Amino acid sequence: MYVIGTAGHVDHGKSTLVKALTGIDPDRFPEEKAREMTIDLGFAWMTLPSGREVSIVDVPGHELFIKNMLAGVG
After folding, report:
1. What is the dihedral of CA 62, 65, 29, 23, to 10 degrees?
2. Could you tell me which residues are beta bridge partners of residue 8?
3. Is the N end or the C end of the chain the one with fewer CB atoms within 10 Å?
4. Digit-coded pLDDT (tens) for 6-41
């Protein structure tokens, strides 16, 4: 299994990329939807054509949520 973490500034499309690749929206909380930003860690997964599984950790990009981001990459 591979584990991939997103990284980037706020509003650079990390969650959008995860959803496009997996079909899973990593922003699952109502506050994230309302504010249109990732606040807590999001998770998604997919199976590659080779059959290998990939897990994706989507981390917040906004500086206010740096502690959540560090929890996801640590």
Report:
1. 50
2. none
3. C
4. 888 888 899 999 999 999 999 888 988 888 888 888
